[in-house]
Amino acid sequence: MAKRKVDSENRAFQNRWEAEYMFTDIAGKPVCLVCGANVAVIKEFNIRRHYETKHQELQNLNAEEKIQRVKELKKNLRFQQTFFTRAKSQSEAAVKASFIVAQEIAKSARPFTEGEFLKSCMMKVCDVLCPENKQMFANVSLSRNTVADRICEMATDLKTQLSERSKDFTAFSLAVDESTDMTDTAQLAIFIREVDSSLCVTEEILDIKSMHGTTTGKDIFENVCQSITDMKLPWDKLIGLTTDGAPAMCSEKVGLVGRMRAKMQEENCTGELTAYHCIIHQEMLCCKVLKMEHVMNTVTQTVNFIRAKGLNHWQFQSFMREIDSEFADIPYHTEVRWLSRGKVLNRVFELSKEICQFMDSKGKDTTVLRDEKWKCELAFLADVTAHLNVLNLHLQGRDRIITDMYDTVKAFKVKLLLWETQMRQSNLPHFPCCQVMFNQVGATVFPNTHFADKLSALRTEFARRFGDFRNPFAVDVETAPVQIQMELIELQCNGTLKAKYDTAGPAQFIRSIPETMPQLRLHAAQTLCMFGSTYLCEKLFSVMKMNKTAHRSRLTDGHLQSILRISTAQELTPNLNDLTAKKRCQTSCSDKMA
Fold it and tell me: Which residues form the SPIN-DOC-like zinc-finger domain (predicted)?
């Protein structure tokens, strides 16, 4: 005889059992309202037996008394269920709040101990605004160790998300740069820019490596390879590599670029790695062709004399107030801050008379500062540097497409040609400082031809360093790669796409290439993923300097890397709900004391 299966009998809880036996249905199981015991099988005999054997004292109650007692018991049960549900919800909210505060601490470059200070502030505010909710705020754990752990967990989650997203991309490029922190530890920043099949770009930090020792091309290469391996990135989809141009980075034999190309050959990659020297860095190198260091050196020495010593600086500010000058001070120039050069040059030119008077009062020789030829050179350098600063700012920023950056440089080269022509004609509408000196010294003294030659040399240097990305509608099909020639012909003969290219520009047009042209879409993805500069690396190093200071010199490499990953994340955000679900609210001793 086959064994009976209770589930197949479709037994259901009967509502009358509540009044008769004081049982209720919870999640499909009969539960006693009196003692909380449950019956495994939904069967009236089992329920009645439990009631008669366990609760004999209730059998003397009449029907109305039973109903009243059942209402009270059910009310107590609902209160208990609500209490535990609310307690669980508050516990999860406290954990999530601790993650949110830890994330803000990481983004604002605050020390981990800041959480305890914020906890103290929250408790005092709670005492005034909502004292009845004080326990909820007390449950938020913000001790130093908790904040550190939360930051590391969020950084790990971001890295996991990036790894998952990397499974669905068609091409990627890397931007690599290296700098030292305040403890002289070399930190290698590696950013990735990847493009998926729908031509959507993801630009995030791939890894930060601490290098305790040498920083040769071999050392950098091994760290980059380790990061690629850990993220399980396919070598055959690596398209570009952008560096700062240092020998350890760009050397074809022992540098990172040469070793990466050799590695791709070992991996049997069909494509060739395209190596780029940071466009912003090249723009700064172009300035050296002007050969006006003697002007900058004199300016730097003058500014350092005024700003380096506190007494001189205070006396100069007092002097500027006495003469009711428009400017109260002069900015300080540092070599690593590229944009400060233009501001310093312009301010020194505008305050040249006041500076000479102050320097005379201090017994300093001002012969050079008063020389008309030198002041003309100062005016020219100030104007050119101002234009270069504008170009520099246009090249900075996230999500910059390399074609747009090269178009910006191309426009600047055309401007240089215009400025050169106008300079030879002594027409100076775009050089305000030079116009002032031209009005003061006259055409016979102002060396406009000499300055025009310098602009010509600068334009030649830009042309040497920067090429042009070709218009897909103007490129010669015969010189194009074989795999895209047929699709390129179809593209060039499509009037709708050509009109869209003319109106929307290269950046938007790339995403409009139809899926019927897979090879062109792949080529477009490879163009989109290229880094034009190491701007993101430089920005990360600025964040690093803010975090690892003299007061936080003992910050570990792991914690520093987690902070930098959270601080630089743009498109990815930590999945706080998943992280919270894995935790349980656990108030530390320091939190209880708060």
Answer: 14-72
